[in-house]
Every structure is written in C-alpha cells, then in structure tokens.
Amino acid sequence: MLLSELLKTITFYQLTASIDGLNINELKMDSRNVQKGDLFVCIKGTAVDGHHFAGEAAEKGACAIVAERPLPVNIPVIIVPDSKKVLARFAYHFYGHPTRDLRLIGITGTNGKTTLTYLLEEIFRYHQEQTGIIGTIQMKIKDETYPVQNTTPDVLFLQKSFRKMVSKGVTTAMMEVSSHALDQGRVFGCDFDIAVFTNLTQDHLDYHKNFDDYLRAKTLLFSQMGNVYSNRPKFAVVNRDDPHGEYFIKSTPYETLTYGIHNEADVKAENIELKPDGTVFTMKTPKKSISVHTPLAGEFSVYNLLAAASAAICAGVPLSTIQKAFEKTKGVPGRFESVHVGQKFGVIVDYAHTPDSLKNVLKTIQSFVQGKVRVVVGCGGDRDRDKRPKMANIAVSYSDEAIFTSDNPRSEDPMLIIKDMEKGVEKGSYLVEADRRKAIEKAIDQAEEGDIVLIAGKGHETYQEINGVRYDFDDRKVALEMIEKKLKES
C-alpha cells in the first residue's frame, strides 16, 4: 500500500522528505521485527520509548518512520501529535477495516471476562457460526489456537488478527477488553457491535491511580462505541446488580439490555437451585422465559450465563439455541476446574485472584461441601498491594484451613508478599508455605473424605514467574501428581 494512501486517513502531520511512490510492506512498532520496506511507528510505552529505536529501524530497512518529534535518520519521518492514534488509524486502514466485516463483542469488568468469551463461543457454534476469541488464555480462530502476551493485545496485533479471522470465515468474534487496553488506546479502530459489562471490584490499582480512574477506564468501551446511529445495530449489556452498572448505561447512546438476579432486569434469573454438579434456574427475558440446566456451579456462574445470554439475544440468537448451549457447556480451563482421579475429596483449581472472585468461589464451595474447605492462595507480585490483606481475610473467613503461598511473585520477594497478606488476619488462623508446590502438597495431604481443596489464583496458567523468568508450573498438573501420590501411599 502506498504511504500517501495511509496519510489520507489523518489531517495533522509534517513530512521531513518526499514520500512520492513510497510503498509500505508492513506496519511495525517493534524495531526488532522491522524488515525492508516496513513503516516503523514510534510508540511511547510505560517502560520503553520507541523513538529511541528509530535508528535501528532505519538500519534494518524501514522506508519511513512515524514519530512525535524530528529524528536523526536519513529516511522520511512523518511527525504527528499522537503516534498511538495514528497507528490505530493506519492499522485499521492497512488491514482493510476488518471489524466492519464481522460482529465484534467486547467484554469488560473485573471478573468473568474469559468465561463469557467461551460461553459465547459455544452459543454461536450452536448457532452455526464461525467464531474467534481474543483473551487471557489464548487467541482462537475457529479451532486454531495462538498464544497472546496480554489479555488485550496491541492495536497492530488486533487489526491483523481480525483480518485473519475474516479471511478464514469468522462471523462473530469475542474479545476480553482490559482497563489497561482501554486506557492505553489499544482498541482504537475496533468497531464493537456489543459491549458487555460484568462487574467491578478492586483490581489493577497498581496501574490506576484510584478506583474512580479504574471505573473511568472501563466505561470507555461503552462510550467509544460511537455517537452516530447507523444502520448497523449496536447494543450494551450491563449487570444491573452491580452498583456501578448505571455508569455504564449512561456511557453509551445505544440500546441497553440489563441482566441480574437480585434487582429488576431485562434478563433475570429466578428460582435458582445451586447444586454440587451444576445449576438450574428460570431465565426471564424480554421475549419469554426458559428453563436453564447447566453443569456450571455457583451464583457467579449464573451471572456469567445471564451475561452471555443477553449478548446472544442482542445478536439475534434464538433462546432455544442458547438453552441448548448452556446444557452442553464444559466450562473454561482453570475456572472452577475439578481435578479428580477417584479420590474421596474434591480438588478445584480456579483463577480467582481478586477479593471478590475468591469470595464467590469459596461461597460456592461452602454451599455443597460435606467436610472442610481448604484453600491454597497467594497474591501476585508487582501488582496492587492493597488487595493482599483483603484476599487473606476472605481466605481465612470462608475456609476451615488457609495456606498462604507464592503466586507469581515476579520481581518481589514471596515472603514480603505474604507479610502483606498477614496484615489482614490474626496470627494462628492460617499456615504459611512459600513454596507453591509444597503448599499444594500439604493441602492435599491433609484433605479427608468430603473435604474440598481450592487452589486459587493461577487457574489456566502453566507457569510461575519469578524474577522475570517463567518456570513451568501448572496447578492442575501439580494437584494431580499430589493426589496420585496420596492414593498410592494410602
């Protein structure tokens, strides 16, 4: 594509040299990946400034550079006020406006985002549609999977991936949208058709200056859907039971479908029966009421199902299809995932890493456990320290035995993280075992018939990050190993 064609998408810029006839092979924002004929865009990140690597990009063959200031290079530089916004416009145009060609559902909130993407995938598969997912665990294009670095990747990755989805016949894509991505403009150029809000509790206050800033960032998904009423319908889906739901409703000009359990809502769960092996409830909708039988357990699962159903209703999916998908759903890896090989006690692995999500999971376990509840829990390093004592307090309050351990300590000392957790509880009300493997072994070794062991915090993750290095570590595999060891020794 001609660079002059891309420049038609922006108004304010300066050129340091002629670009007549200059053709662009690819867009790049990482100088390490630049090849001959690429356009390199300098982005100021939180840790690295791309302007410092413009010379390297030029040496590798970049044909031009987008920057926010003049640079000492011998190739054309396009000087712009905001390179992030320019990159988003360029990527959207370069990859042919891909989200115009598929239905895009964006999901934001503290908890439930990953589960929702998988529930929606199952619903749309039953609706005979080809689907794509971008989220915490991976990117999926139909049945193919690809690794991702962040819950919501950068703008280049997104536009390129959406174009790939369209080329492979995807008609509906679901994406987790993090507060970081919204605040940093990573989803600029994504044409969302449906925006879903799950809930909002304390998280990521290591990044956001306070809770109000966290809330502001989350509402951007709804406000950035646009203010023009076009022929293409757009919808907002909002949790009416969350005290912050009204902020999201007010943030969008589009039709809103609310869901909930306790407050009056458009899509509501009634007559809920929570069981160890699943949940039964009546789902009231603007069209009619249906009975839902699902293997997913807990009230938090009901909220996820209501959110998924609401988004599907907005997309025109029949209630009978939604009902069938919920009956057959297998859940999400690392979300309330049972590890069972014949032992007489339960072991559940869950991604719960916020106070609210941990409380929800433990309350669900308490609703059906026959013996004691034992929990293995830690807190991530280089993240919000304020939630550590809250996590500890919930672990102790809603279990019979809590073991504090290491999660992903990253650059922090695991014992200092645990000391932060200890500030929320009384001495003697918990055990400490900083080695996560030994902590899991201890909990399983002490488990008796009828007990439930919850291993919380990492869920689907297959690594433990210590001092910048990722080591192989999967809670599910470690738990399985320890269960088999106990069975062999008994």
Question: How would you describe this structure to a colleague?
Answer:
The chain is built from 15 helices and 24 strands. It has 490 residues and is an alpha/beta fold. It folds into three domains: 92 residues, MurE/MurF, N-terminal domain (Udp-n-acetylmuramoylalanyl-d-glutamate--2,6- Diaminopimelate Ligase, Chain: A, domain 1); 231 residues, UDP-N-acetylmuramoyl-L-alanine:D-glutamate ligase (3-Layer(aba) Sandwich); 153 residues, Alpha-Beta Complex (Protein-Tyrosine Phosphatase, Chain A), CATH 3.90.190. An eleven-stranded mixed sheet has the order 9-8-7-10-6-11-12-13-14-15-16, with helices on both faces. A six-stranded mixed sheet has the order 17-18-22-19-20-21, with helices on both faces. The chain has a five-stranded mixed sheet with strand order 1-5-4-3-2. A hairpin with a 4-residue loop joins β15 and β16. The termini are far apart.
In short:
The protein contains 15 helices and 24 strands.
In CATH terms, the superfamily of the largest domain is Mur-like, catalytic domain
CATH topology of the largest domain: the name is UDP-N-acetylmuramoyl-L-alanine:D-glutamate ligase
Report the span from N to C terminus.
Answer: 68 Å
Output the number of helix runs.
Answer: 15
Name the overall outline: globular
Integer tally of domains? 3
Contiguous low-pLDDT stretches (5 residues minimum) are none
